[in-house]
Specification:
- By secondary structure, this protein is α/β, with parallel strands linked by helices.
- It has 2 domains: 3-15 and 85-213, HAD superfamily/HAD-like (Rossmann fold), CATH 3.40.50.1000; 16-80.
- Helix content is 42%, strand content 11%.
- It has helices at 16-29, 47-58, 64-80, 91-101, 113-123, 146-155, 169-177, 205-213; strands spanning 3-6, 104-108, 131-133, 162-166, 181-185, 200-202.
- Strands 3-2-1-4-5-6 form a 6-stranded parallel beta sheet, with helices on both faces.
- The radius of gyration is 17 Å and the shape is globular.
Length: 221
C-alpha cells in the first residue's frame, strides 16, 4: 500500500454531534416539526444530498441552494467560536507516523472546502495532507466512489494501492466501490454505523500508530 486517504468528520474530528445539533436547531427555525418526524442524522453524505433528504422529509419550502449556503454559513460561524476542535484521540499520532513511514496521505470528505481548510489549519495538520477532496469537487457524493477516485488520481496512486479510513456506511461503500481497501473506524461511542463491508474494523488509533511504527501493515493489525 502506498497511500492512506482519510475521511474527516468522525475520523479526524468528532464533529458529528455538533453537526447534528446545528441541523436540528436550523431545521426547527425553518419550520420543521421534529416531534412529528424525529431527526435522523445523515452520515457520509455531501451537503446537497443531506439537504435534499431534509427538504423532502420535512417539506421545506426553501430551494436546495439556499439551504446549503445558509446552513454552511451559520455552521462555520458557530465553529469559529469554539475554543478548540474535538480531535479524535490518537489520530494526530497516526497521521504523523504514517508520514514518517513514507505513506502518501490524502483526505476525501463530504464536507465543503472552507470547513476542511478550517479544521486542518486549526489542528495543525494541513502540511501532512498532499491532497484534499471536498464534497463540492465531485458530481456524485458518497456512497459513489468519485471522491476517493479523485483523491487517488491527484495523489498519482492507483486505487488498489490506497487504504481508506472511514466511519460511515456510505463512506465504506464508496471506498470499496473505488477498488480500495478500507479500515472502518468504530472508536466513538455514538457511532452506530454498519461498517461490516470494511476490510478491517479498528477502534484505537494509538494502537494502529504503534503497529505502523514497528513495521506492521495497515491491514495486518
Amino acid at each position: 500500500m502506498q497511500a492512506v486517504i482519510f475521511d474527516m468528520d468522525g475520523v479526524i474530528v468528532d464533529t458529528e454531534p455538533l453537526t447534528d445539533e446545528h441541523h436540528k436547531q436550523y431545521l426547527q427555525e425553518l419550520g420543521a416539526d421534529l416531534d412529528a418526524k424525529p431527526f435522523e442524522p445523515q452520515r457520509g453524505m455531501n451537503s446537497r444530498g443531506t439537504w435534499e433528504v431534509f427538504k423532502t422529509m420535512y417539506g421545506l419550502e426553501h430551494d436546495i441552494d439556499f439551504l446549503i449556503e445558509s446552513g454552511r454559513e451559520r455552521y462555520m460561524e458557530h465553529l469559529k467560536t469554539l475554543d478548540e476542535l474535538p480531535i479524535i484521540d490518537g489520530v494526530s499520532e497516526l497521521i504523523h507516523q504514517l508520514h514518517a513511514t513514507g505513506y502518501r496521505i490524502g483526505l476525501a470528505s463530504s464536507s465543503n472546502p472552507k470547513r476542511i481548510k478550517l479544521f486542518l489549519n486549526q489542528l495543525g495538520l494541513t502540511d501532512f495532507f498532499e491532497v484534499t477532496v471536498s464534497g463540492d469537487d465531485v458530481k456524485h457524493g458518497k456512497p459513489a466512489p468519485d471522491c476517493y477516485l479523485l483523491a487517488a488520481k491527484k495523489l498519482g496512486v492507483n486505487p488498489e494501492d490506497c487504504v481508506v479510513i472511514e466511519d460511515a456506511t456510505f463512506g465504506v461503500r464508496a471506498a470499496k466501490s473505488a477498488g480500495m481497501k478500507c479500515l472502518g473506524f468504530a472508536g466513538l461511542p455514538h457511532n452506530d454505523q454498519d461498517l461490516s463491508e470494511a476490510d478491517l474494523i479498528i477502534t484505537d488509533f494509538h494502537k494502529l500508530a504503534n503497529f505502523v511504527k514497528t513495521g506492521g501493515g495497515l491491514l495486518d493489525l
